[in-house]
Write a structure and sequence with these properties.
This protein is an all-alpha fold. It is built from 20 helices and two strands. It has two domains: 232 residues, MFS general substrate transporter like domains (Growth Hormone, Chain: A), CATH 1.20.1250.20; 199 residues, MFS general substrate transporter like domains (Growth Hormone, Chain: A).
């Protein structure tokens, strides 16, 4: 019998016990500890929008160096997503999220003290490693703690916390940069990340991961501590555990998990392209369509309010309507508004059309980043699989801006939205054909499903 055929009997049954727990102070504490780190991930992801305008205007950087800064951000995130997956599955969720947060915090402080733009670019690459890792580990870790009936809502709200990093960066940039320059923005990110790193030392390791690694005594100890905090005085009586085959990396390319890998990769490529190939270009599109810069920013701010609302709507729908219907429905709505958008020049229709488009996109953000992809894979390979899917998704952001620019020059906004619609159609086909439905199902049940 090979190692890949090893059958194990769960004696702790941490999955069933976690799934039966009521929402308690423990879950809220875990949510906010993970969410604090995820907020700084979102904050720093968008920090370049404010910082780069200041660095080039003061002569600290050139436009070419600014492009390198952006490129190194996504290059670092692509590598970080992959590394975090392998580290998290091998050494634990706790080790991985603490390591990436420490790297991100120290690199942010180094960026605040950067004497040259080349130094800042190098620091940004290290920050990118932490950013890419955090989004993989944060969502996946929370997935393993929250009961099935609430998992979609809680993970969608986690995505909303990340999205809130955009208005936070914009607001702080407008208040700080004119008086103190761009360096305090990085310093705030570094100090905040290190404070969260210290607070997170009290977070437990995932008992699902411990049990999967055969560390049964530790898993039982953590489970008893969680149950006590949740008000459960004794472990519940459960049916005898059934033998289960432990997943290994090779399974990711097997008959059951490979289609899930394809679906996870497609949806993350699509959503990353929609955000960094369309949403972040909205001000540019407005200016190129003849609007003044002032009106461009005003319209962008009005439309961008759809981001947190879309995440909240995703949180509402993910458990009630299910993952697949919500993803497919939001994709259809995005296609409709995307098809209308190039033909709405009048501001009376442009803003609501753009708002509807972004609302649908951010419903997808809530589900695809935080909810759906981590649920697709067994605990033993969850972070590696999610890391590979995120690596491909982040990799798309390296090339998508060039595609957007070429399409915009050749065909205008209609060319860009046409490209976006084509990607959404591919996503609908993939999710409808190969996707599974994890809503209100335990992770072990989803793992066993064909």
């Amino acid at each position: 019998m090979t190692s890949s055929d090893t059958m194990t009997i769960s004696t702790v049954q941490s999955g069933l016990r976690l799934d039966r727990l009521p929402i308690s102070a423990f879950h809220k504490r875990i949510f906010w500890l993970i969410g604090a780190g995820m907020f700084f991930d979102g904050y720093d992801l968008y920090i370049g929008t404010s910082v780069l305008g200041s660095t080039v205007s003061t002569g600290f950087s050139t436009l070419a160096q600014n492009a390198q800064f952006v490129s190194m951000t996504f290059f670092g995130m692509t590598i970080g997503a992959l590394l975090a997956g392998f580290l998290g599955d091998a050494y634990g969720r706790r080790f991985s999220y603490q390591t990436n947060l420490l790297i991100f915090g120290i690199a942010s402080l180094a960026a605040a003290a950067a004497p040259t733009m080349d130094w800042l670019i190098a620091a940004r690459f290290l920050m990118g490693l932490g950013l890419g890792a955090e989004i993989v580990v944060g969502y996946s870790t929370l997935t393993e703690f929250v009961p099935p009936a609430k998992r979609g809502k809680w993970l969608s709200f986690m995505a909303m916390i990340v999205v809130c990093g955009l208005p936070a960066t914009t607001l702080l940039g407008s208040l700080i940069i004119p008086y103190f320059g761009w360096r305090p923005l990085f310093a705030l990110a570094g100090v905040g990340a290190l404070v969260v790193w210290q607070m997170r030392k009290a977070m437990p390791e995932s008992p699902r991961w411990l049990e999967g690694k055969g560390r049964v005594a530790e898993a039982e100890q953590v489970m008893r501590s969680i149950e006590f905090e949740a008000g459960v005085k004794e472990a519940p009586a459960l049916a005898p555990a059934q033998p289960m085959r432990s997943a290994v990396v090779g399974d990711l390319f097997g008959r059951k998990l490979f289609p899930r890998m394809v679906v996870g990769s497609i949806v993350l490529i699509v959503i990353n392209t929609l955000i960094f190939g369309f949403v972040t270009w909205l001000p540019t599109f407005f200016v190129q369509q003849g609007l003044t810069l002032t009106r461009s920013f005003a319209y962008t701010i009005m439309i961008s309010l759809a981001a947190p609302i879309g995440c909240a709507l995703g949180a509402y729908l993910s458990d009630r309507a299910g993952r697949k219907p919500t993803i497919i429905g939001a994709s259809v709505v995005a296609i409709i508004f995307g098809a209308l958008y190039p033909y709405t020049a009048d501001p009376l229709f442009l803003v609501p059309t753009g708002f509807g488009l972004l609302l649908a996109i951010y419903v997808l953000v809530a589900l695809l980043y935080g909810v759906y992809t981590p649920e697709l894979f067994p605990t033993e390979v969850r972070l590696r699989a999610n890391g590979i899917c995120n690596m491909l998704g982040r990799g798309a952001t390296i090339v998508s801006p060039f595609i957007v620019v070429a399409l915009f020059k050749a065909y205008g906004v209609g060319g860009v939205t046409g490209f976006m619609i084509a990607l959404l159609i591919i996503q609908i086909i993939a999710v409808a054909g190969w996707g599974i439905e994890p809503a209100r199902r335990g992770l072990e049940e989803v793992t066993a499903a064909e």
